[in-house]
């Protein structure tokens, strides 16, 4: 457990990794700090494993940062005679990994930042694999950089932030659950829409088929006192970047309007869900 660091100097981190290789940060609780909880200050030389950590209540006295933060700023980053949008298409393909020689891994962590991003890969951070993380508030940002895989993460109350993304970045973003559209900044090529591949509704009468196919059972049933043939729950599913997400919409007869069950938050998320499903 690490808490209340940075009482005098604010540009600090409880865990600071710099010019090293194969560092493991595991099973740490980090909170109440002025800036990042875990910071990797450049790409040299990678191979780090950040896992099973709980990092929250961060970036309390600074800004433009995250509960996890990294910088790249490696040798390739400010080369004047190379086009970053095409660098991976030619003979200089491996230049971004000249310093970040091994991938760094973030997995199975819980991050929350109320004053920045939950995970912030800034300034050309390169060669990362980020998966199975729970981002509770600030979303995940990737700025510049190359060879990053972002998959199987959940971004609660936020989304994915691609900033200054190079066309030839070789980044892969897939199978994440987000709570809103992507939020790109200075991205010169299209970002795939949040809901793209499949929208399907399921007849409540065939809830058994739904369970067999997707291992979930949202059986519809008549509520006592409901109107004739009215169901209290209707099951829907839609496809988000390769992950099927099920929403349950509940009919409350006395209010004469649909209201979502607790699988979708009340308020604007409820209306967004209905809008998507239409």
Description:
- Strand 23 and strand 24 form a beta hairpin.
- By secondary structure, the protein is mostly beta strands.
- It is built from 2 helices and 25 strands.
- The strands form 5 sheets. Strands 1-5-9-12-15-18-21 form a 7-stranded parallel sheet, with no helix packed on it. Strands 2-6-10-13-16-19 form a 6-stranded parallel sheet, with no helix packed on it. It has a 6-stranded parallel sheet with strand order 4-8-11-14-17-20, with no helix packed on it.
- Helix content is 6%, strand content 33%.
- It is globular, with a radius of gyration of 22 Å.
What portion of residues is helical?
Answer: under 10%
Q: What structural category do the secondary elements indicate?
A: mainly beta
Report, as a whole number of angstroms, the end-to-end distance.
47 Å
* Mean pLDDT level: 77
Number of strands: 25
Topology record:
Layout lengths: L1 E2 L11 E3 L2 E2 L2 E3 L2 E3 L6 E3 L4 E2 L2 E3 L2 E3 L9 E6 L32 E4 L2 E2 L5 E6 L5 E4 L2 E2 L4 E4 L4 E4 L2 E2 L4 E4 L8 E3 L2 E2 L19 E4 L5 H8 L18 E8 L2 E10 L4 E4 L7 H10 L1
Labels describing this entry:
278 residues; seven-stranded parallel beta sheet; six-stranded parallel beta sheet; 2 helices; disordered C terminus
Concise account of the structure shown:
This protein is mainly β and 278 residues long. It contains two helices and 25 strands. The chain is globular.
């Amino acid at each position: 457990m690490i808490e209340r660091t940075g009482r005098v100097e604010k540009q600090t981190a409880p865990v600071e990794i710099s010019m090293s290789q194969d560092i493991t940060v595991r099973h740490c609780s980090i909170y109440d700090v002025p800036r990042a909880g875990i910071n990797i200050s450049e790409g040299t030389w990678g191979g780090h494993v950040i896992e099973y950590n709980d990092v929250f209540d961060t970036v309390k006295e600074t800004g433009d940062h995250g509960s996890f933060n990294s910088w790249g700023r490696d040798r390739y980053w400010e080369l004047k005679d190379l086009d970053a949008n095409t660098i991976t298409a030619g003979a200089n393909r491996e230049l971004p990994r000249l310093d970040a020689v091994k991938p760094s891994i973030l997995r199975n962590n819980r991050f929350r930042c109320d004053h920045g991003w939950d995970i912030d890969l800034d300034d050309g951070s390169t060669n990362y694999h980020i998966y199975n993380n729970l981002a509770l508030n600030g979303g995940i940002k990737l700025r510049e950089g190359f060879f990053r895989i972002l998959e199987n993460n959940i971004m609660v109350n936020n989304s994915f932030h691609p900033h200054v993304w190079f066309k030839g970045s070789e980044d892969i973003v897939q199978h994440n659950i987000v709570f809103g559209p992507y939020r790109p900044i200075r991205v010169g090529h299209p970002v795939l829409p949040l809901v793209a591949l499949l929208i399907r509704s399921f007849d409540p009468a065939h809830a058994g088929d739904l369970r067999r196919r997707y291992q979930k059972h949202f059986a519809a049933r008549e509520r006592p006192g409901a109107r004739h043939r009215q169901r209290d729950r209707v099951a829907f599913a839609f496809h988000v970047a390769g992950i099927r997400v099920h929403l349950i919409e509940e009919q409350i007869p006395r209010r004469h309007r649909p209201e979502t069950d607790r699988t979708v938050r009340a308020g604007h998320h409820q209306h967004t869900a209905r809008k998507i499903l239409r």
